Amino acid sequence: MTKGFKKAIRQIHLWLGLASGLIVFIVSITGFLYVFEEEIRDFTQKEYLHVPVQQKDFVGLKPIIENYQKLEPKQKITAVKINKEEPNATVQISNKKKKTFYFNPYDGSLVNQKGADWLNTVLEIHRTLLLGEVGEFIQGWSVVIFLIILITGLILWFPNQMRLVRQSLKIKWSGSFKRVNYDLHQVLGFYASIFLLLIAFSGTYFAFEGSKKAVGFVTGSKLRKGDEVVVNTAKIDSTTIPERYNAIYETANSKYPGATSISFSVRKTGELRLRMIYPNKWATARNQNTIFFDGKTGQLLRTKLYKDNNAADVYEASNHDLHTGTFFGLGGKIIWSIVSLIGASLPITGFMIWWNKGKKKSKKAKA
After folding, report:
1. Do residues 118 and 45 lie in contact, with contact meaning Cβ atoms separated by under 8 Å?
2. I need a labelling partner for 300 at 20 to 30 A (CA). Which of 4, 34, 208, 252 fits?
3. Edge-to-edge strand order for the sheet containing 261-266?
4. If we measure between CA atoms, which residue out of 262, 244, 242 comes closest to residue 253?
5. Which residues of 150-180 are buried (b: 16+ CB within 10 A; e: fewer)?
6. What's the pLDDT score for residue 89?
7. How many other CB atoms are found less than 10 A from the CB of residue 134?
């Protein structure tokens, strides 16, 4: 590796790091806080995530949505979540005001309602920096820049001589503050880089079509949008929203039984998306049926069944779990949280390295 090449890589690493450091810090810290979102909610919200077990069947979506509409007649539903694995889990309905309503699955009565909590705020900061679409744009490209920083950092880490490899793998705690800070940046950055590359790439997958095409290229397969319904005979013949949701739920649950979780969400296009997640020893999202309906009529538009998935489809279904570490279970979440903290520390230690070098050059210039 020539000195000129390494100098150019160092300049790219430095200036991209200075330009995006604050955003990388914010995204990493919020990612660290959100890794255990499910566990935190289970602990802090257990009084309304479940009701006492009863020897009754699920009441159905119709009475639940009717009760919701009595509470919020002017607020459209944005999401519905049903946990079939735990029959006593409350049914959750969310709206555009970011309020969530929890209903008893046995009789449809309201258990509780609440607005966005601090975890919702953390997620919004992580996704958009609280700046809406502009923040989403900034955040997305900052993650792309972070990928470049990680790659250039790995190139810079690699020592010129093999005998120095062992030294590059250890932090010299007995050294000066500057030396320890340098080692924290270089050594921890190296150990965390493989995980951070996966986290960062899976983050760009949410934002950029290019990432999806890259997965398709690597896997030699093309991401499917779903099988279009040629003859739209599967129309949900219902006049009200509660009837429509209930009819879709009952039809899908009957046709594709065994799902542990069923959720509805309204997309920006106006489509109503139904997700049905099935048991899997690795990533639950990998075994996922996704069915799309017309948001106004309830008419079936297309289906994407996991039994027909190719490699690109499998990655798409697993991408969220890869991004959060859920794919690897509790151990994965612990590793992801530690790595996220290291990711947050890199802009700080990197800035201090640059600052100390600047002060050193200033002293030399004065001398």
Report:
1. no
2. 208
3. 110-114, 100-103, 91-95, 77-83, 261-266, 272-277, 288-293, 300-304, 227-228
4. 262
5. bebbbebbeeeeeeeeeeeeeeeeeeeeeee
6. 95
7. 10
Beta-carbon contacts of residue 17 (< 8 Å; ≥ 6 apart) = 149, 346, 347, 350, 351
Task: Decide: 142 and 17 in contact? Cβ < 8 Å.
Answer: no
CA distance 354 to 18: 9
The partner residues of 303 in beta bridges, in order of sequence, read 227, 291
| CA-based nearest residue to 82, from 48, 66, 105, 116 | 105
Per-residue model confidence (pLDDT) at position 2: 73
Best CA proximity match to 248, nearest among 288, 279, 276: 276
At residue 5 the predicted structure's pLDDT band, cuts being 50, 70 and 90, is confident
State the Cα–Cα distance between residues 45 and 48, nearest whole angstrom.
6
Q: How far apart are CA 84 and CA 89, in angstroms?
A: 8
Distance CA 293, CA 306 (A): 18
Residue 13, both tokens: 């690493």
Cβ atoms of 39 and 46 closer than 8 Å: no
Question: Using CA atoms, how far apart are residues 284 and 314, in angstroms rounded to an integer?
Answer: 11
Assign 175 a pLDDT band (cuts: 50, 70, 90). confident
